[in-house]
Design goal:
Layout lengths: L5 E3 L9 H18 L4 E3 L18 H23 L2 E3 L13
Parallel strand pairs: 1-2, 2-3
Helix pairs in contact: 1-2
């Protein structure tokens, strides 16, 4: 087995700040790739929103997630391709059931 390098990232998440969180993570990916050239970069669960999907804070959070998750997949995928690395970036998968992921 050939040796490989994994970078585990713990990042301060902006609750429900999908765009800010994704932008920050992609910036971190670029920095890690430049400095360490990792084979895999791993981010924490719910890195796009934090643990709360409080509909009182953002009443349309489910609608927002359904619109933004495909864009997030594309952005993170492009960052992985550009940096020639693999990224574990757990987020939500939309469901056909209303307000469920």
């Amino acid at each position: 087995m050939k040796p490989f390098l994994i970078c585990a990232v713990q990042v301060k998440i902006v609750p429900l700040g999908i765009d800010k969180n994704v932008d920050r993570c992609i910036s971190i990916v670029k920095q890690l790739c430049k400095k360490y050239k990792p084979d895999i970069i791993v981010f924490p669960e719910t890195v796009t929103t934090g643990f709360s999907l409080d509909t009182k804070v953002i009443p349309n959070i489910y609608t927002e997630l359904k619109k933004k998750i495909p864009i997030v997949y594309t952005q993170v995928g492009e960052a992985a391709k550009t940096c020639k690395t693999n990224i574990v970036f757990t987020t939500y998968e939309p469901s056909n059931i209303k307000n469920k992921f």
